[in-house]
Write a structure and sequence with these properties.
The protein is 42% helix and 0% strand. It is mainly alpha-helical.
Length: 129
C-alpha cells in the first residue's frame, strides 16, 4: 500500500502553508501623500451636512453624543488625524454591524466614494482646508 503523503510532500506543503499565512496577513499601507488632496470644505463638509448634520441626528448642538455641525465639532467627534482606522467616524460609516452603522435607517448609507473621500481626508491629516 502506498503512503498518501510522503515526508517530502508533507514538508513542502507545510512550508507553503506557513508562507501563505505569513504573507497573506500583510496589509497594504495607503500612501496618502501620493493621492490628490481631499478638501474639507468642498468634499467632506457637504457629505457630513447632507448625511449626518441635520436636526434629529448630529445637527443638534444638544445631541446626546456629539454634534457634527462644524469642523471643530467633527474633530471632537472622534477623528484621529492621519489614522482613519482609529477614527470613530470612519468605523461607524464602514461598520458591518447594522446596529452601529451610520447613518441609521431610514437614511441611506454613504456611498463607497463618500467613504473613500472621508478615509483619504482623515489619512491626509483631516485638515480644515
Amino acid at each position: 500500500m502506498k503512503q498518501f503523503f510522503c515526508s517530502d510532500t508533507f514538508k513542502s506543503l507545510s512550508i507553503f502553508i506557513a508562507l501563505g499565512i505569513m504573507f497573506g496577513s500583510c496589509k497594504h499601507k495607503t500612501k496618502f501623500e501620493e493621492l490628490l488632496p481631499v478638501s474639507y470644505s468642498t468634499s467632506i463638509a457637504p457629505i457630513i451636512s447632507s448625511n449626518c448634520a441635520f436636526s434629529g441626528c448630529h445637527g443638534d448642538s444638544a445631541f446626546q453624543k456629539f454634534s457634527l455641525t462644524s469642523y471643530d465639532a467633527l474633530m471632537n467627534g472622534g477623528i484621529s488625524a492621519g489614522s482613519p482606522e482609529k477614527s470613530k467616524i470612519y468605523s461607524v460609516i464602514k461598520s458591518l454591524d447594522k446596529d452601529k452603522i451610520m447613518p441609521k435607517q431610514p437614511y441611506a448609507e454613504l456611498s463607497e466614494k463618500q467613504i473613500q473621500l472621508i478615509y483619504i481626508w482623515i489619512g491626509q491629516g483631516a485638515k480644515n482646508n
